[in-house]
């Protein structure tokens, strides 16, 4: 087997035992890696109804056949588990040295099972696995933890760790590395914290097995050069994703005041050009030559890595227009191991609840010191308010009531990432049908939608959404490489089948890759339906009421809102094209066509399946 190592490392924390399991080549061909491996492992090995915060849940770190090769932006891995935030399939991707080091150690995925009795660190060094006492690290923030581990194991070590948010089981706690690389929005850090696993360290010394090493070397060199020739490359290097703030403001899609508006009066003060004025350095993922992490000196005079999502959610969405203060909140979130996107939602929800009199403790829009204090309360679950918000906006709205669920901005329990959709039905549908809940990574259709006609709810938009989900959610998340070279600078998709052939020897066209993508997407959907059972309905794929009921009141598109009837029709068109029934459940014929016959047998125990 070329491209893949052919082995999963299975780590049992109860028994302090690790075993390398070989997997069949057919699994690699049918699921590629990354998200494909993760959802297949979780589908096969978790029982229906598994409590996400229990020793029965499993945490998967998975790479793909391109991970770690000298190719543009190939230093990625997927972290996945059943989500404590949503109750469905949860994952995230992280650009990290751990991805490369795990591959060099000889593994394509690491599966964490069971639960340690006391805090532990797992050290994977090639074929050796050690279970180390982590009590001196427990309680430290993620930056401090990684610093101490790098002092022990060297600067090349791949470290994945949690902060106090994960330790205290905040349901949107994530996993952090390299002082700002983070992933696992749906509570992967909480799963790790429940297992008393403070960190995993990977050190590998092996070579990656390419089918055609010379071709791989030449393709990689050519591809790196190609990326740098793209017209947008120079500006990307200056601003990275921060340039999106000006674009979102111009197009009335910048989340402002808990997604009640699409423009922010102080957007210029927190945008890409403002960032350039206070930028002190850059950070990025391994194997990347278009680094996107821009580091600024924040209001605490510390370095903070910024990108579009964390600045938007901790800036305009909570009414804060001071970029240095926004940067300080973002750094604190990373140190504490809290997802900045969900955190910005939670803070925005708390501010609106305070404004409407639903919370006794007041917190005003744009209140920096109060926000910083509340972030600490959430991470440590201090007080009634901190404990309430630590479970996310869906839970908080259920507890507070009084109509707050209408402006609790989530889909399936996962807080929405940084695009307002009052004026973009396609992006609203992308959020609503994402594999993990409301996240943009599966299909960033909004740019295409703004150019091609945001007012449409038609078939063409549905076709484009499915195309993007196949490309992004299926192929990129499973190969496992970053999508930004393609999206941001126009690196052509034709490179990726060539990379895959050089790595694995497989001849796969994009049409073939889309079949794999559909298999993964349908298995992920089946995981959700298996867990929700008879509670599952098409309403699960509908965005919050705010976007339908409360028009925006500012900007060029003042008065705009989504049309519920047209959205419902668009959703049914999407289901039909996906081969799903009117509830959004894959039909038997669809599952069988994709080689998921075994899924039919399991799924029909939870719901009635259509032919």
Short description:
This protein is an alpha+beta fold.
Topology:
Blueprint: E1 7-12, E2 17-22, H1 25-31, H2 34-45, E3 59-62, E4 76-82, E5 89-95, H3 97-104, E6 109-113, E7 120-125, E8 128-133, H4 142-153, E9 158-161, H5 164-167, E10 175-177, E11 181-183, H6 188-194, E12 197-203, H7 213-229, H8 233-239, H9 244-250, H10 272-278, E13 279-283, E14 293-297, E15 303-306, H11 308-314, H12 323-336, H13 340-355, H14 368-379, H15 383-389, H16 393-400, E16 410-411, E17 414-415, H17 425-433, H18 446-452, H19 459-479, H20 484-489, H21 495-504, H22 510-532, H23 546-549, H24 564-578, H25 588-593, H26 597-603
Parallel strand pairs: 1-6, 7-12
Antiparallel strand pairs: 1-2, 3-4, 3-6, 4-5, 7-8, 9-12, 10-11, 13-14, 14-15, 16-17
Helix pairs in contact: 1-2, 2-19, 2-22, 7-21, 11-13, 12-14, 14-15, 17-19, 19-22, 19-24
How does this model look, in words?
This protein has 611 residues and is an alpha+beta fold. The protein folds into 3 domains: 7-203, Aldehyde ferredoxin oxidoreductase, N-terminal domain (Aldehyde Ferredoxin Oxidoreductase,  A, domain 1, 4-Layer Sandwich); 233-418, Aldehyde Ferredoxin Oxidoreductase Protein, subunit A, domain 2; 427-490 and 509-603, Aldehyde Ferredoxin Oxidoreductase Protein, subunit A, domain 3, CATH 1.10.599. Helix content is 43%, strand content 13%. The chain is built from 26 helices and 17 strands. It has a 6-stranded mixed beta sheet with strand order 2-1-6-3-4-5. A hairpin with a 2-residue loop joins strand 16 (410-411) and strand 17 (414-415). Helix 12 (323-336) packs parallel to helix 14 (368-379), helix 17 (425-433) crosses helix 19 and helix 19 packs across helix 24. The mean pLDDT is 97.
């Amino acid at each position: 087997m070329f491209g893949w190592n052919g082995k999963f490392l299975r780590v049992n924390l109860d028994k302090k035992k690790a075993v390398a399991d070989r997997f069949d080549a057919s699994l690699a061909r049918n699921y590629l890696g990354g998200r494909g491996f993760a959802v297949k492992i979780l589908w096969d090995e978790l029982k229906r109804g598994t409590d996400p915060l229990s020793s029965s849940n499993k945490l998967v770190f998975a790479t793909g056949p391109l991970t770690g090769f000298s190719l543009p932006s190939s230093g990625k891995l997927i972290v996945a588990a059943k989500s404590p935030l949503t109750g469905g399939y949860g994952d995230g991707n992280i650009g990290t040295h751990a991805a490369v080091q795990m591959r060099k150690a000889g593994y394509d995925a690491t599966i964490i099972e069971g639960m340690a009795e006391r805090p532990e660190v797992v050290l994977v060094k090639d074929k050796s696995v050690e279970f180390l006492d982590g009590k001196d690290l427990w309680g430290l923030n993620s930056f401090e933890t990684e610093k101490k581990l790098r002092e022990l194991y060297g600067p090349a070590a791949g470290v994945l760790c949690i902060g106090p948010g994960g330790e205290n089981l905040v349901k949107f706690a994530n996993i952090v590395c390299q002082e700002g690389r983070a992933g696992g929005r749906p509570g992967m850090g909480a799963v790790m914290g429940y297992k008393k696993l403070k960190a995993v360290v990977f050190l590998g010394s092996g070579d990656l097995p390419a089918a055609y090493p010379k071709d791989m070397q030449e393709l990689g060199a050519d591809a790196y050069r190609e990326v740098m020739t793209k017209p947008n490359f120079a500006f990307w290097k200056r601003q990275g994703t921060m340039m999106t703030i000006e674009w979102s403001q111009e197009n009335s899609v910048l989340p402002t005041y808990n997604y009640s508006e699409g423009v922010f009066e102080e957007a210029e003060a927190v945008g890409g050009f403002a960032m350039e004025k206070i930028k002190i350095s850059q950070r990025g993922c391994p194997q990347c030559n278009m680094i996107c992490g821009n580091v600024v000196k924040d209001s605490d005079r510390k370095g903070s890595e910024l990108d579009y999502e964390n600045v938007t959610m901790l800036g305009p969405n909570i009414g804060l227009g001071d970029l240095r203060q926004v940067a300080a909140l973002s750094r604190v979130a990373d140190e504490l191991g809290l997802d900045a996107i969900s955190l910005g939602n939670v803070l925005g929800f708390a501010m609106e609840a305070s404004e409407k009199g639903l919370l006794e403790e007041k917190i005003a829009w744009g209140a920096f010191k109060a926000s910083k204090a509340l972030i600490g309360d959430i991470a440590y679950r201090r007080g009634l308010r901190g404990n309430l918000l630590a479970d996310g906006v869906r839970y908080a709205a259920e507890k507070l009531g009084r109509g707050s669920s209408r402006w609790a901005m989530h889909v399936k329990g996962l807080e929405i990432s940084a695009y307002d959709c009052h004026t973009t039905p396609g992006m609203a549908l992308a959020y609503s049908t994402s594999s993990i809940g409301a996240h943009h990574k599966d299909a960033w259709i909004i740019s295409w939608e703004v150019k091609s006609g945001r007012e449409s709810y038609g078939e063409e938009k549905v076709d484009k959404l499915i195309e993007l989900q196949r490309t992004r959610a299926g192929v990129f998340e499973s190969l496992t490489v970053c999508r930004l070279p393609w999206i941001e600078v126009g690196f052509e998709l034709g490179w990726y089948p060539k990379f895959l052939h050089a790595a694995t020897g497989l001849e796969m066209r994009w049409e073939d890759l889309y079949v794999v993508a559909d298999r993964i997407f349908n298995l992920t959907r089946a995981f959700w339906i298996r867990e929700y059972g008879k509670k599952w309905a098409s309403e699960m794929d509908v965005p919050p009421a705010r976007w339908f009921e409360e028009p925006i009141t500012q900007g060029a598109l003042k008065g705009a809102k989504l049309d519920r009837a047209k959205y419902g029709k668009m959703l049914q068109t999407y289901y039909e094209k996906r081969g799903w029934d009117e509830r959004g459940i894959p039909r038997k014929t669809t599952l069988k066509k994709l080689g998921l016959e075994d899924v039919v047998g399991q799924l029909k125990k939870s719901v009635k399946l259509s032919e």
